[in-house]
Amino acid sequence: MMIKSSLTVLLLLSSLLVSAQSFRWDIGVNGGIANYFGDLASETGTNSLKVYQKNTRYSFGGFARLRASHNIGVSFHLNYILIAGADSLNKDSDRTSRNLSFRNNMFEGSARLEYYPIIINDLGGKKRYTADLHLMLFGGLGLTYSNPQASLNGSWENLRPLQTEGVSYSALQPVIPLGFGAFSTFRAGRARFKRHRVGVEVNWRLTFTDYLDDVSTTYIDNETIREEQGEIAAELADRRVGSDGRAGGIRGNPNRNDNYATIMFSYSYLVGFQGSDFRRPRYNYGGGRKRRTKF
Question: What does pTM read for this prediction?
């Protein structure tokens, strides 16, 4: 089902690219904060929706966007995203005795379909048309390289090869980016066209794995891990103080997958302009148009 859905979206994106050759691209960079939601999150319940948390880290990357039509865009993104979590950050929870922690240096590539429900071409309403504003909704498909690590004796150990819960999982994980944002395009100085663009977006990633943090189910026998994976794996699998190393205790919650989100600010520059005076509506609300005016 996931493969069929992915192919459908990719075919749609391809058709837009073919039909949009007369429009223009913008290429840019972005950066911001990243939050992780999972078994080792520093906040739980409604507190997990805080913009800045104790385990908040950062993200940055680059992108290219193609304007496929007046209200539709297609964008391609490459991002580095750092997420982290630790039981020690949630002192109001009974999870502190579990004593687990992690970080994950992730690399993500994605393709998104963007819809602009509201467009204001004359931002400020002074009839100068030097800046516009686009509100944006988007969704797409992505692939993330995930590499959870834990600190032991001053060094970071890769957790996935150690199989701390006796489970083998892939480093490559599909994700679905969903979100909203806005961007403004403006012209600088006496330039004829608007070529500079700044924006902000909130991007939630729906994942299909519970192992971004290497924590999901129950403890397995610590001696078995030591024999099969070595001493480092045994130490990182069970870090409870005074633990007897027996199997069966709750280590994570397998009923909820891990997810992550970013809030990113961006700058991009418009390229590939055809040189003609595109004409756009002064306002656009979900496809409705008012007085046409110069772009």
Answer: 0.84
